[in-house]
Amino acid sequence: YLSLSGPLRIGPAGLGTVGAETARLLTTRAAELSLRAGRELQLTAVSARDKSKNRGLELGNASWIDDPVSLARDPRVDLFVEAIGGEGDPARAAVAAALSAGKRVVTANKALIANHGVALARSISKRRRRAAFRSSRRCARVWQRTESAASTAS
Which of 3, 72, 102, 128 has the highest Cβ tally under 10 A? Predict the structure, then answer.
């Protein structure tokens, strides 16, 4: 389980619009966000397809990890942020790896949840965890069906 003591070490995979802005906020507004969260938030490591791409982003002390699945499994990361997109790999493999490693996962990837929600829900339920989400009504209904299917399959 996620310890509430010490910093929350965050690792986003995908540095497009969402992932880059997440990393930017975690570096430029770390003190404010940490105060609001009630604990220190740290950008620990990141992953994206092209390390050489200029994103206008300072990563501070964050490590670069080429493979998003390796980032998801990294013991220095408490919270894995999937900002890769798409319903398949590498997003699916990275989220599955993070869940298997007992990490908390944040994603806004509705295609991933809609197409692989049952398998992800099973992985979550095996660890006696729960899924929480906030999205559109349609996605909420899909997730409710996947959770029901996973609990009846267990």
Answer: 72
pLDDT band at 108 (very low <50, low <70, confident <90, very high): confident
Instruction: Tell me the longest C-alpha to C-alpha distance in the chain.
Output: 48
Find the helix packing angle between 30-37 and 17-28, rounded to 10°.
90
Question: Contact 101/126 with Cβ under 8 angstroms?
Answer: no
Residues near 111 by Cβ (< 8 Å), separated by ≥ 6? 85, 86, 87
CB atoms within 10 A of CB 28: 13
User: Residue 10: what are its φ and ψ, rounded to 5°?
Assistant: -110, 135
Please state the pTM of the whole predicted model.
0.81
Q: Enumerate residues 6+ apart whose C-beta is below 8 A from 22.
A: 10, 12, 81, 83
Round to whole Å and give the CA distance between 67 and 80: 13
* Percent of the chain residues past pLDDT 90, beyond the cut: 60
